[in-house]
Amino acid sequence: MHFATTKSFTSHITNKQYFTMIKKVFFAVAMTTAGIFGAFAQKQITLEDIWARGTFSVRGISEIRSMKDGEHYCTLTRNSIDKFSYKNGEKTGSVCVFTDIATDFPRVESYQFNEQETHLLLSSGFEPIYRHSGVSDYYLYDIQAKSCKKLSNNGKQRLTQFSPDGKKTAFVRDNNLFICDLETLQEKQVTFDGKFNHIINGTTDWVYEEEFAITKGFYWSPDSKKIAFYRFDESAVKQYNMQMWGELYPEDYTFKYPKAGEDNSVVDVLIYDLTTDKTLKLDVGSQNDQYIPRIKWTTNPNVLAFMRMNRLQNKMELLLADATTGAISNLYTEENNTYVEVPDTWIFLKDGKNFLITSEKDGYNHIYMYDMNGKQVRQITKGNYDVASVCGVDEKAKRLYFTSHESSAINTELYVTDFNGKKITKLSNAPGTYRINFSNGCSYYICNFSDANTPPIYTIHDSKGKQIVMLENNVALQNRMKEYGNEKKVFGQLTTSENVTLNYYIIKPADFDSSKQYPVFFYVYGGPGHQQVTNSYSYNDYYWHRLLAQHGYIVVCVDGRGTGGRGAEFKKVTYKQLGKYECIDVIEAAKYFAAKPWVDADRIGIFGWSFGGYLSSLAILKGNDVFKAAIAVAPVTTWRYYDNIYTERFLQRPQDNPEGYDQNSPINFAKQLKGNYLIIHGTGDDNVHFQNAADMITALEQANKQFEMRIYPNKNHSIYGGYTRLNLYTLMTDFIFRKL
């Protein structure tokens, strides 16, 4: 194996800066004094600026919570939870000042109000388990008395939540569900069979957390009398082992990870009755061949709703359960010849008569209203565009606020319509990306706007879209960005030989000269439903790409077939052959730019992380006559090694579709490598296992192919912590300078 250590990035960039300076000096001789100063004004971005100094840090607003009155909201700072007025954005006081509790009170990481807004739950000391899960210490704060007490001295908890009546909390500890009486702080254990790698109560297993984005596995009924919760029996799920390095003898960390085609956890849904102290087990169906990705109480405190999907995820049902008898009835069913996405939205309206749900059943993701008998009332949004999210529902005024890609797949903009969907009004102004946080009652919203070259701008608006207050415009960062050059993301479209139109963005050197030729560096992700070509601000890679442009590289990012924002047909064309069209499209995009007179066709490279690392690996193998260099970080190298919920959604089981697994897995094409390949992986990656890199390396060695690699001991899929990211990006930048 070969390591990228032959030439340091520091020495390379110093030489580059030196020669750039000499050129500027000769050029400046012929300039006026003002011109001379202008020539030296631009600063060059460094990796230390991005990963060590915080030169381009963004100012934001953390943990926004609307108050019940709909006129105020709270935010979290290092020192306090502060209260503000929506009408003018002015601070009206502090709900909680942490130093008033104790001078050494631990840092608060999150908070929640009880329904009555008399108490707060403060969480601190978060210790991660996997990507979304972790344990914390919780503190109960009495707002009026300004008193605080630790919720439990029996160990950290997970997912602690107030009951609707504010008298209790529920939480998970050691895979068991507990209830805590807030008057006495007495804990009552609800389940007793929880055991690591065997039984999980009240939360989810690894694969549900990763692929259904759900860790919270218990739900209070609206009247606080019952708790519905998951029980996972993962005893039969096969284990994956990671060695954790650093001690005299490495420790083994073993956890349950169901790979494609393998057994899943057996999942039950249970309802615990606090009054009778009895637990009802629901008949959720054939547990060995299905998923329960969502649970939610309806507005009726005796009716629980849950989603059920078959293993291939091409059928989704909404089922209702009587919380007293356990009787099950069907509310809604959706089937597809590929797969059904778990709905982004399912909202039971307060009138108790209707619910909202999003679906791609007409070819695009849209919002539908159904009654509680399962009859479609109407399709609220229609058109050849995808709804991105439902932001607010004003039942009193019968208005629905949502974001969509109506203007373009690259934009996510805000709209409002009535419940009939007859009139849709665009509330956002400039094209870009809008993230919206509505007040209780939807009279106001806080808007987080950005575009490709503008960092986040926070504003308060009324329900008609009128801006009331500018909260944060990041103007200091905008000015700093100008000091470091003028490289910009520019969007465009290209058409492939198959007559497919693809969106891309390009970043060129600020002094771009069309009479010269430049190397091109592609950045890709390409995973199903995801987008990278978006008119939104991204921090890390944006500045890294600008750094590369300052050193004479053109950076291009393209969204091929399979990506999101363009309807179900464009996204689902990859079904049963994941990677095929994605790879074809990125190779075609490379050829498109290679034909430009200002591109050096012999110097085209590609980089990606996770699915992007998979795609960059596949591209340099199948497109070995196009790409000179590729960097793959944490790549899947064979789909047989990845988890079953994700992989089977797009490829079915390997038993059913072996060709779909093998015809587009990089591990099977190692002998086709011609260019320069750098593979990078963390040994503690619980998501895309290091096994992918290890077996890819073996395949390359057996094919007698030279390559470079870097491993990061104990690092997970994100490969971060301390100076790790600086080290990683120094490595990759050096590789680009040497090999492209």
Structure in words:
The structure is a single chain. The protein is of the alpha+beta class. 18% of the residues lie in helices and 35% in strands. It contains 14 helices and 44 strands. The protein has an eight-stranded mixed beta sheet with strand order 37-38-40-39-41-42-43-44, sandwiched between helices. Strands 13, 14, 15, 18 and 19 form a five-stranded antiparallel beta sheet that branches. Strands 20, 21, 22, 23 and 24 form a five-stranded antiparallel beta sheet that branches. A hairpin with a 4-residue loop joins strand 35 and strand 36 (467-472). Helix 9 packs across helix 10 (611-622). The longest helix has 20 residues, at 9-28. The radius of gyration is 27 Å and the shape is globular. It starts with 8 loop residues before the first helix and ends with a helix.
